[in-house]
Amino acid sequence: MSYSFELFNMYKEQKNYSQDKQAIMDIPKLNKGALYEIKKEKRCFTAEQALFIADQLDLNKQEVIVNLGIEKSKSEEEKSVYEEL
């Protein structure tokens, strides 16, 4: 499961939403198609979306951005740099 989808599920659970569409309406610039691609690990949340969720769930914003960077990494070298932060 991708980090973005984990964040989505944490948000949905925290808000006691039973349907994805309820959370989709809250998260900035998210639509059903984008969520489908996130579930398939073809897409990640934007920094704006991830920070919105971090604010709502009172998560450490730096950790969220680093984990999002790891998810978006295209190379092992890039990934290892994020993991060292």
The shape, in one word, is globular
Bin the helical content: 55-70%
- Write down the domain tally: 1
SS summary, helix count: 6
The biggest sheet amounts to: none
Q: Work out the oligomeric state of the chains in this entry.
A: single chain
Helix and strand pattern: HHHHHH
Query: Span from first to last CA?
Result: 22 Å
Low-confidence stretches: none
Kindly report the average pLDDT value: 95
Radius of gyration over C-alpha positions, nearest whole angstrom: 13 Å
Number of E strands = 0
Q: How big a fraction of the residues is strand?
A: under 5%
Helix and strand content put the structural class at mainly alpha
Explain the overall architecture:
The chain is an all-alpha fold and 85 residues long. It has one domain (3-84). The chain is 69% helix and 0% strand. It contains six helices and no strands. It has helices at residues 3-14, 20-26, 32-39, 47-57, 61-72, 76-84. Helix 1 runs parallel beside helix 4, helix 4 (47-57) runs antiparallel to helix 5 and helix 5 packs antiparallel against helix 6. The longest helix is centred in the first third of the chain and has 12 residues, at 3-14. The relative contact order is 0.16.
